[in-house]
Amino acid sequence: EVQLVESGGGLVKPGGSLRLSCAASGFTFSTYNMNWVRQAPGMGLEWVSFISDTSSSIKYADSVKGRFTISRDNAKNSLYLQVNSLRAEDTAVYFCARGRVSGYRWPDDFDYWGQGTLVSVSS
Amino acid sequence: EIVLTQSPATLSLSPGERATLSCRASQSVSSFLAWYQQKPGQAPRLLIYDASKRATGVPARFSGSGSGTDFTLTISSLEPEDFAVYYCQQRSIWPTFGQGTKVEIK
């Protein structure tokens, strides 16, 4: 069974940082592209970042470029998102989501999602 | 950026009725469109990809159609567990989502 479990969220002041993690199991993690998608409270979904299976291709939404850094450790079956210079508008549940097709494909749709981790930015 | 506009914002229907949800793209996305279902407090669930292909385990009452800029998700006969928010998403250039349609019990 495919499982994605996020952690690392919390309450942080504007300008602060967090490192979000996503632990993957039930599939060959190293062969799938991964993504972060966020959802502000009561709002819709916003794609945030993409990393290819081998980490050779990385992409960011304009709203987070220069502040967020995506990475992965295939040996640990883990995906990460370093979020810096946080703003109130970054408050959201952050989901990790698997790209549907194995091997490189950009962009893709998302076939498995974690339950999310909440990042709250407030003074 | 490709903007996806979903309509209606809210659909009030009774169990057993047919639901028709629309998603319109600001420019052609070919057939690169997916539909997701999200229930309160849960992650989105992929229902349809490439406009008309059902994802693994999705009941046959869910169907998708369309290409180019106009797409439809149809639920042939609503079950109690189908009342949720539905999002469309395109993967033509950068992934973007529609703002969602809430299907509520009438």
**Count, helices of chain B:** 0
Task: Indicate the mean pLDDT of chain A.
Answer: 97
Structural class computed from helices and strand pairing of chain A: mainly beta
Largest binding interface between chains: A-B, 19 and 22 residues
Helix coverage percent of chain A = under 10%
Query: What composes the largest sheet of chain A?
Result: 7 strands, mixed
- Oligomerization category of the chains in this entry: heterodimer
Poorly predicted sequence stretches spanning 5 or more consecutive residues of chain A: none
Mean pLDDT of chain B: 97
What is the succession of H and E elements of chain A? EEEEEEEEEEE
The number of helices of chain A is 0
Radius of gyration of chain A from the CA trace? 13 Å
Query: Which of globular, elongated, flat, extended, rod-shaped describes the shape of chain B?
Result: globular
Instruction: Show unreliable segments of chain B.
Output: none
Helix content of chain B: under 10%
User: How much of the polypeptide of chain A forms β-strand, as a percent range?
Assistant: over 45%
Report strand % of chain B.
Answer: over 45%
Major sheet characteristics of chain B: 7 strands, mixed
